Amino acid sequence: MDVLSRLQGHxxxxxxxxxxxxxxxxxxxAVAYRAGEVCIRGDEAGEMFGILxxxxxxxxxxxxxxxxxxxxxxxPGECFGEMSLLTGQSTSxxxxxxxxxxxxxxxxxxxxxxxxxxxxxxxxxxxxITRRLAGEVKSRGxxxxxxxxxxxxxxxxxSGPLRILAVSCRWDDVRYACYDTSSEAxxxxxxxxxxxxxxxxxxxxxxxxRRESSLGSVTHARALExxxxxxxxxxxxxxxxxxxxxxxxxxVRHGGPEHHGPALVNEAVKATVxxxxxxxxxxxxxNLIGIETCETLAPDVPQVAVFDTSFHLTMxxxxxxxxxxxxxxRDETLQRFGFHGVSHESAGRAAAEFLGTGFxxxxxxxxxxxxxxxxxxxxxxxxxDTTMGLTPLEGLVMDTRPGDVDPGLLMHLMLHRRVxxxxxxxxxxxxxxxxxxxxxxxxxxxxxxxxxxxDARALLAIQMFCRRARKHLxxxxxxxxxxxxxxxxxxxxxxxxxxxxxxxxxxxxMGIALDEGLNRGVRVAPGEVKAISAAQSRVRIVxxxxxxxxxxxxxxxxxxxxxxxxxxxxxxxxxxxxxxxxHHVHLSQAHVEALFGAGHTLTWHADLTQPGQFxxxxxxxxxxxxxxxDRVRVLGPVRPETQIEISRTEEFRLGIDxxxxxxxxxxxxxxxxxxxxxxxxxxxxxxxxxxxxIHMAPxxxxxxxxxxxxxxxxxxxxxxxxxxxxVAVRVSPDFRLDxxxxxxxxxxxxxxxxxxxxxxxxxxxxxx
Length: 768
Prior knowledge:
- The chain contains 24 helices and 37 strands.
- By secondary structure, it is of the alpha+beta class.
- Strands 24, 25, 26, 27, 28, 29, 30, 31 and 32 form a 9-stranded mixed sheet that branches.
- Helix 4 runs parallel beside helix 20 and helix 16 packs across helix 18.
């Protein structure tokens, strides 16, 4: 098929220059479908956008066992996959070939930013999406056959063919893995252990199998050079040269308060890594050595820093802050950051996929147990609390770190035992924990073996390790109000059935019950998930095989795709009005009548910024366990379920804790009593603090290269220069462009109602 000739005359590309059209052709793939093949599955996140060249496709929704609904017919010249180009979510219908067909298809992440730069293409797609949303046709038919093809699908969330090197450079070892996005499995992986000891060993696995060699005394830089030599070796390598790499991703332990997601490495990013090194002395400086060494080994290859702290920056302020004296309490660098975020997020997502539920629809407690150890509470895709804090010292007992310690003990050691501060710092990071308790080792397996042989100190060490973990697990389960699953990962979490059993012991009253046989026998490969919960357990318990290098590679691939979209955002410079959202209530019709009288309908008072939405004359009172708030405005029109949106300060006045959620995401939220002139209503759920969000019409989203449910950063103009992270994108034909933040945040940022924002970058991509 001559792809250029097929695209030249298509109205989507009518206003493209010859140069831009040539770029489109480079991104295109010609595919053929047999009659009955599924071109786009309805139960998978949208990844593909296509133009039908010949044949016939149908968009089909499935109902009951034998019920099909024909949502539309796609004829030659028409597009398909445009809805998920906008949303990134699972498509609402399958696209099925009803005759032998040919198409030109694109990976959405690749074509999206290019379409966004062309006004004619945006207008064409906007009209098409509006028409698709308006038209539905019903029909009957048989089931379609699954397509064996993945014409433009790439692994690791990449938008095109990439070769990715993932690097984790730590204080005593260097780990790496090389990926090609045509496959889920790594081309090669390796580890140089014993760096700086005089007896370093390089163990690697590749096309020629497993190999091991002694390197003697090496620095981190020399260890990385040995890794690159292996990867490019004619004998065992998978690369012709380092220049064949598309991107190098690095695990960075501490990213400070400004990095809400992975970042392309530049001088400012390196400065942050260096600045935060005092808070992660076993990692950050070695992470930086890895970055700078790779800059020398592969000078023109982009690098991405994947921060272990980023995932936890969604924690509410009450979880982040320490109760310090006033002069320290408001310093954003003196807060709880949390760590192991890459592991907690990837294990949580793997567990959600195993459970067949969206990551952002679950309550999870993830237990990363390894040399370092932490437990995290995840509520609907957001970290809401974790056991580690400002540094990786807080929380659980670890290999050589103590976890929670009374700060008075540390002051006593410095003031009365005359232990120098610098020595104490080193001892807490490298001489405490299991090593300090047992006097044998910081390795759980070694200490556990000594405990089984009767060593009293080792036995105490294991008991303290598990007891502390059980205490924090129970606390976080209580904080969440229960969980859908408890997830174990990390070297200890995956491989020690005894530790898992001790941690879960006695928590059956909280719905935690292990199957002893499954727990003893479970073995997981990297990325694999297996259940170990008993049949009667209300909470699923799963073990996830950790694969940090794969998670880093995935973040690096998605960051490269988002970088193109971020360029589009900056080039557009589109002004986004900022609205300050005060407390308000959305009512169901049943509650309208219960509060204002039988047959009552809401009364218009004033239009809101979003079309069709209005402030009502009706007001209600909110009554919580502690207090009440009167004269809270009702917003219309009525909704299927009542929802109450309040600010953080109002939570305190009412005496409740409301989670940060998107509108409509009400599972597991607290209830409240509403009072109106005709009576009271007790709402069992529905109180939220609204997540920062931007409303957009489809044309706005297409022009700015974002999707529904993306999470973005927004630069705000005004007296103070600031960036809001963790801002959700909501897309609908009924929306008008504006950003909403609550009154607390507006006051803290000194924003007025006429504030303006600009999209800065994509923090997290909608992933279905």
